[in-house]
Write a structure and sequence with these properties.
Elements lengths: L2 H14 L5 H25 L4 H21 L4 H16 L2 H13 L9 H5 L6 H15 L4 H22 L35 E5 L10 E4 L1 H25 L5
Antiparallel strand pairs: 1-2
Helix pairs in contact: 1-2, 1-4, 1-9, 2-3, 3-4, 4-7, 4-8, 7-8
Length: 252
Amino acid sequence: MTPLGHLAFTTQTFSLAGLIKLKDFTKILIAYLLSMIVIYFWASWFKPTLWIMYFYDDITWVIFLVLVIYRYRDELGVRLLIAALVGSQVLSGFSHAFDRLSLILFGTVSTGMWEPHNFWHSPLFAIMPCLVFTPIVTRFLKIPNRGLVFLTLYLGYSLHVLADTITYDFPIYWAWPFSDFKWSIYQAFAPPIPAGSGLFGHPFINVGTSAYNAQWGWVMYAAEPAIIAILMVYCYLIYLIRYLLGKTSPSS
């Protein structure tokens, strides 16, 4: 899943749990939908190079930083959402930096379960960066409970791992370091080469790649916007149910 997709996915989970208000959920979702529309038509009409991927990622960081700057002193639910996004967007995203660092220092990147990207995207390894950053996030967000902050960081991090398992074609090593078993739900609905059938597995945005060389360039599979759209419906249904419950008196 793309960074912006992770942001929306984590926000939707907090919405389903009743931890953030409807207005906060809606603002973030609108930002996701508008960005997705712009990037989709831009990629379709102008056939840009890979710089559009970095531009798309930058949109994610702008939304995240705006949320942090203007809302980090607000109600507890918003501060917990920010903590979850630190886990989902920042800590789990370090994997790409360590891939590049390995390439710079050693001229190569390990493959399989010991590739930085792969073991960084595992539920057990996630505990370590979450533990390291718990005191920092606790102090910044002024949440007087380190256990709560750790669990929220870990929730965001694990949601990143789960979302990639559903919507991405890279292997996720769920049993690392005890097994090299890797899993990707995406493979269950990936269309055969050449891509042309199957809704979830079809490339939604495809820049610099082909059906025969999907590992180079940037590809966003239709699984991402499809999952976000499905969760969006459920989120608003739950908000509606809560609203109607509030309108219903105990005697009715």
